[in-house]
Amino acid sequence: MTSNFLKFAIAALSAACFAVSCGSDSKVPEWEWPDKPTDPTAEKPRFIWVDAAANFPDFADSKENIARDLALAKNAGFTDIVVDVRPTTGDVLFHTDHCQQVEWLGAWLPEGYQKVTRTAMWDYLQAFIDEGRKLDLRIHAAINTFPGGNHTSIGDAGLLFRDPSKRDWATVLNLKPEDGGIVSIMSTSQSAKFFNPVRDDVQEYICSLLEDLAAYEGLAGIFLDRGRFDGFTSDFSDYTREKFEAYIGQKVQRFPSDILPAGHTTGIPAQQPVHFRKWLEFRAKVIHDFMEKARAAVKKVNPDLKFGVYVGGWYSSYYDVGVNWASPRYNVAANFAWATTQYQQYGYADLMDQMLIGAYAKPNAVYGTNEWTMQGFCSLAKQRTMGDCPMVAGGPDVGNWDYEDKFTQEEENRAITQSVAACYRACDGYFLFDMIHLKKANQWQYVKAGIDGVLPKK
Fold first, then answer.
1. Which stretch of DSSP H or E encloses residue 363?
2. Which three-class secondary structure state does DSSP give residue 394?
3. pLDDT in the model for residue 28
4. pTM for the predicted model, two decimal places
5. Would you place residue 24 in the very low, low, confident or very high pLDDT band (cuts 50, 70, 90)?
């Protein structure tokens, strides 16, 4: 999630910042899923994400630390905890016979980026569910969907490194000739080693994990993160080429240049290749159809479990990862020149029970109407999902929003408080990434002030 923010924030337009006053003393009341999430009188959910790697030093071996920090989240006014149980290594922190358990993760410690090894044998996800039950917090599980391995300075981990028979599952990238040309991601220096989402066997594997995850009693929901392609350069394997040619009903004469220039990573090519827009459409269909399968896998096990996704709010450029998270009724072609008329058919908002929007703007861009403001991200998400997804919540990445170090701590603290009203009132709830940032900077009180300010007084 963080890497997407950094990639797109650099190109973001600056947005006006408006002063806002938040704060009142009110008890956090019990909350139920409302029939009309946009009802201004209804209390809405407040989600906080728990990244696996960043929080691993605290949580890997300590139920006591889990209990401590969930209590802090409850006291701040959060109602829902999103626990990352499949980090970018692709290994897992829940019970399944289909994948290996996480043995170690890399995390930033005072002495630098270090390997944190897990020695505990108890069920990581179950510990959150048990503690959440005590505190009346809803626990959701999140998975990194299509990563299958991770390469870092401290070592390699994941299925793609462990099992040579699965090497064909790795995505094949379209790089510049000097960078390798058409090459497996396993032969590059990129850290997160993505699967090819087009492959039927990859999709079946992910669905098998989701079935096991959905079997957890007491789990409120599942969120799919990185349910996408690994950027514009992915996937250019022979497998995907054949699938695309079958989709358009003809051979691609010059591959890949009739689709995308070699090494093209962002934006619309100055001269669009002949198959460029159909390629965007095809990739959106791949992800849409996978989400149908994933939803069916979850609902088969537990029809009451809420199925959803995390997506970046920057919809106007999200075509580069093959995702159309809008309603299939949203006329994309009328708003964006890169979309075919068929592109909107592959909007998947109607497949979702819940959606978290990364409203990852800078601390001085809380309020506004456009993308790259927190409020704008959220209000546009509501417009584009058109009510098809009953719960759309958005919010900031409070730890990676000042990558140029331009803002004071006081300005960041104020932005946290302001972000609650901006996002909460623009959509169906509030979402904050990530718990580790509030812990490191001891900023719980600022999000609490924001949450207290939007809740009805009792």
1. none
2. strand
3. 26
4. 0.92
5. very low
- 10 Å Cβ neighbour count for 369? 12
* Structure confidence by residue, pLDDT tens digits, 73-100: 999 999 999 999 999 999 999 999 999 9
CB atoms under 10 Å from CB of 323, counted, come to 24
Closest alpha carbon to 80 in 45, 131, 50? 45
Biggest alpha carbon–alpha carbon distance for the chain: 67
Q: Please name which of 223, 169, 220 lies closest in space to residue 352, comparing C-alpha atoms.
A: 223
Q: Give the whole-angstrom CA distance, residue 422 versus residue 357.
A: 13
Token couple for 100: 């290996």
Instruction: Give the chain's end-to-end CA distance (angstroms, integer).
Output: 37
DSSP class per residue in 221-234: EEEEES-S-SSTTB
- Residue 345: phi and psi, rounded to 5, are -60, -20
Tokens matching residue 32: 């139920």
Number of neighbours of residue 178 by Cβ within 10 angstroms? 8
Q: In the predicted model, what is the mean pLDDT of residues 420-446?
A: 97
Please state, in angstroms and rounded to a whole number, the distance separating the CA atoms of residues 276 and 338: 9
d(CA 364, CA 273): 38
Mean of the pLDDT values across residues 40-53? 89
pLDDT digits (tens, 9 = 90+) for 133-154: 999 999 999 999 999 999 999 9
Phi, psi of 14 (to 5 degrees): -70, 145
CB 426 within 8 A of CB 454: no
All structural domains of the chain, each given as residue ranges with its CATH number in brackets, are 42-454 (3.20.20.80)
Spatial distance between the Cα atoms of 445 and 439, rounded to a whole number of angstroms: 11
Residue 92: how many other CB atoms lie within 10 Å? 23
Q: What confidence tens digit (pLDDT) does each residue in 255-283 have?
A: 999 999 999 999 999 999 999 999 999 99
310's tokens: 């995390």
Of the candidates 1, 354, 426, 4, which has an alpha carbon nearest to the alpha carbon of residue 418?
A: 426
Beta-carbon contacts of 376 under 8 Å, excluding residues fewer than 6 positions away, are 15, 361, 368, 369, 370
CA 34 and chain centroid, separation:
24
- Please count the other Cβ atoms lying within 10 Å of the Cβ belonging to residue 322: 27
Cα–Cα distance measured from residue 86 to residue 101, given in angstroms and rounded to the nearest whole number = 9
The 147-152 sheet, strands edge to edge = 155-157, 147-152, 192-194
The amino acid sitting at 437 is H
What angle (nearest 5°) sits at the alpha carbon of residue 292, between those of residues 169 and 301?
95
In this predicted model, what pLDDT tens digit does every residue of 194-218 receive, in sequence order? 999 999 999 999 999 999 999 999 9
Q: Specify whether the CB–CB gap between 12 and 358 falls below 8 A.
A: no
